[in-house]
Write a structure and sequence with these properties.
241 residues; alpha/beta; five-stranded parallel sheet; four-stranded parallel sheet; 9 helices; 32% helix; 17% strand
Length: 241
């Protein structure tokens, strides 16, 4: 197969293709920060891609995600004659399936070493002893938004012994007033550093009566090479809370 020209609108997929099919990527969003030093044309953000610039790159394939990207932008790319592959990733199992599909579509090996390592890391994971800890997982503040139902990050946390209080919510990313979050009965607040950059001085102070765990957003929400280290990285952060 001839080398394919690929534009990625999903940071985790950008990293996966960059390390698995070197030279395939010709464009990526401004948010695609991994791997470091990636030298491709930047096409603005995931929510406001520069359609004209993408079309000018004449890619064989544009990678997108039903959560990361907006349908009007994807429709505009299709209307311009481009092939758009849209992924859906709401569980770890789905992530592995979609990664295999994306890698194949981009001409990369179906089983790169990092993907085998990621499968093994999660397959061999042993849940913490004892009962699950009930947690709220904010992903934004002003207004406060948390993980709700059917999220990839929620599935990873469940495998690490963390029960998402809002896993049964009707919305996937509900807005919840701070007073309600404080009164939810959660024993733990999990604060990733993306999409909102929660930090030691920005987030935990809103929950003075509840233990907080600051975690790597890349390891919690990205499906790509970071999955191999995610159980260890996330597990260490959760145990320290």
């Amino acid at each position: 197969m001839a080398r394919r020209r690929v534009v990625s609108l999903v940071p985790s997929l950008t990293e996966a293709i960059a390390v698995s099919a070197p030279g395939a990527l010709v464009g990526a969003t401004d948010w695609c920060g991994h791997p470091a030093g990636l030298d491709v044309v930047r096409v603005r953000g995931t929510k406001n891609p520069d359609v004209g610039r993408i079309v000018a790159l004449a890619p064989d394939l544009v990678l997108a995600n039903e959560e990361e990207n907006r349908e009007p932008d994807l429709a505009a790319l299709r209307a311009a004659g481009l092939d758009v592959l849209v992924t859906e990733v709401r569980t770890l199992a789905q992530a592995f399936t979609e990664l295999a599909r994306v890698l194949a579509a981009c001409g990369a090996p179906a089983r790169p070493e990092w993907l085998d390592a990621a499968r093994a890391a999660w397959r061999d994971l042993r849940p913490p002893a004892g009962r699950e800890r009930r947690a709220v997982v904010p992903v934004w503040r002003r207004p406060w938004m948390v993980l709700g139902r059917e999220t990839f990050a929620g599935d990873l946390l469940a495998r690490l012994g963390v029960e998402n209080v809002y896993a049964g919510h009707a919305e996937r990313y509900p807005r919840v007033p701070l007073a309600e979050l404080r009164g939810s009965g959660a024993e733990l607040v999990v604060l990733p550093d993306e999409p909102y950059a929660f930090a030691a001085d920005d987030g935990p102070e809103a929950f003075p009566e509840t233990a907080s765990a600051l975690v790597s957003g890349r390891h919690l929400t990205w499906y790509g090479p970071s999955l191999a280290a995610a159980p260890q990285v996330l597990g260490a952060a959760l145990r320290g809370a």
